[in-house]
Amino acid sequence: MSEIIPKRVEDSMVETVHLVRPTHLNSAGRLFGGVLMQWIDEAAGIVAKRHCMSNITTASVDNLRFIRGAYQNDMVVIRAKMTYTGHTSMEIRVDTYVEDPTGMRRPINRAYFTVVALDENDRPKEVPRLIVESETEKAEWEGALKRRENRLMRKEEGF
After folding, report:
1. Which parts of the sequence belong to the HotDog ACOT-type domain (predicted)?
2. Which of 6, 59, 39 is nearest to 108 (CA)?
3. pLDDT tens by residue, 110-148
4. Is beta strand 55-66 parallel, antiparallel or unpaired with respect to 105-118?
5. Euclidean distance between CA atoms 91 and 48, whole angstroms
6. What is the pLDDT of residue 148?
7. Which of 131, 134, 96 is nearest to 113 (CA)?
8. Cα–Cα distance, 91 to 73 (Å, whole number)
9. What string of H, E and C letters represents the secondary structure of the chain?
């Protein structure tokens, strides 16, 4: 059996950019939440796949916050990074911004995804340990532990 090599946060970090087109808009003229959900789920999935180098599945999305809207021709920047790893699960933080022509970014969304690594039989498999180095990464890890505890409590309570 091969050794699972730990990875750093930056080893799997992702940044994607999307231009909001007319087909992405809801009836109010803003970026449709479902389109944004697809974009951020894809970014989280890429981070997870890079980290565990296997197939994955999204288990849950926590703390999905829509801070403000995005509109036609806005440039939407999505940054995703690993914040925590368990035995078979990973937590990924996804921040979304609208970037103006000067490069200034305004936050429009934040979410935390729990993703599970899968083996060739679609069963959960062990993931590489996450190496946390900076104070920010350590704070994210601690926050992830609290979010994990809350998820388990909600599951136990049936919601």
Report:
1. 10-121
2. 39
3. 999 999 999 999 999 999 999 999 999 999 999 999 999
4. antiparallel
5. 8
6. 92
7. 96
8. 31
9. CCCCCCEEHHHCCEEEEEECCHHHECCCCEECHHHHHHHHHHHHHHHHHHHHCCEEEEEEEEEEEECCCCECCCEEEEEEEEEEECCCEEEEEEEEEEECCCCCEEEEEEEEEEEEEECCCCCECCCCCEECCCHHHHHHHHHHHHHHHHHHHHHHHCC
Confidence (pLDDT) at 64: 82
Task: Give me the CATH number covering residue 36.
Answer: 3.10.129.10
CB proximity list for 105: less than 8 A, separation 6 or greater: 77, 97, 98, 99
Q: Is the residue at 2 inside a domain? A: no
Domain that holds residue 139: 7-157
Q: What are phi and psi of 71, to 5 degrees?
A: -130, 170
**Contact yes or no for 43/81 (Cβ under 8 A):** no
d(CA 115, CA 113): 6
Domains held by the chain: number:
1
**Angstrom distance (rounded) from CA 60 to CA 40:** 13
Task: Count Cβ atoms below 10 Å from residue 113 Cβ, excluding itself.
Answer: 25
| 114 in any annotated domain | yes
